[in-house]
Design brief:
Blueprint lengths: L7 E6 L14 H15 L4 E6 L7 H6 L4 H25 L4 E5 L8 E2 L2 H9 L3 E5 L9 H11 L4 E6 L4 E2 L11 E2 L1 E2 L1 H7 L6 H9 L4 E5 L5 H6 L6 E3 L1
Parallel strand pairs: 1-2, 1-6, 2-5, 3-4, 3-5, 6-10, 9-11
Antiparallel strand pairs: 7-8, 10-11
């Protein structure tokens, strides 16, 4: 049986990851797929926290670009992450995974408020904790929230599961000759302005020496492989 390399990790999922092949919303098939992938590392005995984006439903930056006030737009984006988190919680619990959603915006009838010590206790008891509503503040992305929560719960590493198999030196969708990095340091990411995460998130990870791995969610078994220390995706450290 494969042995995990890490005890406690934080997994960052984009909202777009839950769309599947759709143009908008949440794909039930993709939820089932993600839940099965998370199940595979739960079975290894790892402690798992998750941050989900909201771009499949509403993106604050995009809304502000066509005239909506940025703070209002970002609050709507936070609500979108809560919807995704509840959908993912349902899918995980159908796979017999005990799950708690903690939200940075108080809504007691829907989810627990984010309390760091309570989150740590859930993780110790084998529950998957999903952190919703970003940091609870406008102007901060869910990437920054993921790095922040990873630091707060003392995660050993942050996994960013995306639609591409690592960090490229150019957009692989528009540049066929783009090459993927196997390993890169934080400062290079900042200097080259590589769009793997926003600059605030990378800076926060660098300041706290939190390693990041960027890999493809689409390839079945990748979450388990990277959890067991296989050399896939891009390591940022």
């Amino acid at each position: 049986m494969a042995k995990p390399r890490y005890k406690r990790i934080l997994l960052k999922l984009s909202g777009e990851a839950l769309m599947g092949d759709q143009d908008f919303g949440i794909s039930p098939g993709m939820l089932e797929y993600v839940a099965a992938e998370v199940r595979s590392i739960c079975d290894l005995g790892m402690e798992i926290a998750i941050v989900v984006g909201g771009g499949n439903i509403f993106r604050g930056v995009a809304a502000s670009s066509f005239g909506m006030e940025r703070t209002s737009a970002d609050h709507m984006g936070m609500l979108a992450t809560i919807m995704n988190s509840l959908a993912l919680q349902d899918a995980l619990e159908k796979n017999d995974i005990q799950t708690r959603v903690q939200t940075a915006i108080s809504m007691h009838e829907v989810a627990e408020p984010y309390i760091r010590r309570r989150a740590a206790r859930h993780l110790e008891r084998g529950r998957v904790v999903i952190f919703a509503a970003g940091t609870g503040n406008p102007y901060f992305t869910t990437d920054t929230a993921a790095v922040l929560r990873a630091q707060e719960i003392h995660a050993e590493i942050l996994f960013k599961a995306t639609k591409v198999n690592g960090l490229y030196d150019a957009d692989p969708e528009t540049n066929p000759s783009a090459s993927v990095y196997k390993e890169i340091n934080y400062m290079e990411v900042l200097e080259k302005q590589l769009k793997v995460m926003d600059m605030t998130a990378i800076s926060l990870a660098m300041d706290n020496r939190l390693p990041l791995v960027v890999f493809s969610l689409k390839e079945k078994g990748n979450i388990k492989r990277v959890s067991c220390g296989e050399d896939i995706g891009t390591l940022i450290h």
